[in-house]
Structure formats: C-alpha cells, structure tokens
C-alpha cells in the first residue's frame, strides 16, 4: 500500500461517486483504477464486458495484472531456433 497524490477536484469527485455508490473514497479510487487499467489493456471491450472481467477476476481470487494481460507473446508460441 502507498500514498498517491491526486488533485482536490479528483478527491471531491471520488467522494461524491463513492457516496453515491456506497463505497469509501479509497474503494472508489481503486474501482476506477481497475476499470481504467482494463480499458487500456482491452480497448475493444465495452463497460459491460469490463464489469464481467472484474467479476471473473474476483471469482479467481482478485485482479492480477499478469492474468489480465493474458499469456506473454513469447511464451504463447514457440519460436523455432535458427540452424547454424
């Protein structure tokens, strides 16, 4: 855990959204960060699909960046070695 500095306006936005959705400021910030991270990793997905990914991640024990990214491209396929 660490400290993240944010603007006063963002803090107020988090407070308002958190209150509206029955979340703490920290929980609301973490939610927005997870949604934003998944949106950047999967720009082809809409909000509904991102929500389903978050639910599945929770069922799998939490959102892990290495799992969210999927298999590493170098590990996903074998590359034949060059012959000498």
Folded structure, characterized:
With 84 residues, the chain is mainly alpha-helical. The chain has a domain at 8-63. The protein has five helices and no strands. It has helices spanning 8-20, 25-41, 47-59, 65-69, 73-76. The N and C termini lie far apart (50 Å). Residues 72-80 have low confidence and may be disordered.
Helical content (DSSP H or I, runs of 4+): 55-70%
Distance between the termini: 50 Å
**Overall shape:** globular
The biggest beta sheet reads: none
Describe the structure concisely for a colleague.
The protein is mostly helical. It is 62% helix and 0% strand.
Topology (SSEs and partners):
Layout: H1 8-20, H2 25-41, H3 47-59, H4 65-69, H5 73-76
Helix pairs in contact: 1-2, 2-3
Task: Record keyword descriptors for this entry.
mainly alpha; globular; 84 residues; 0% strand
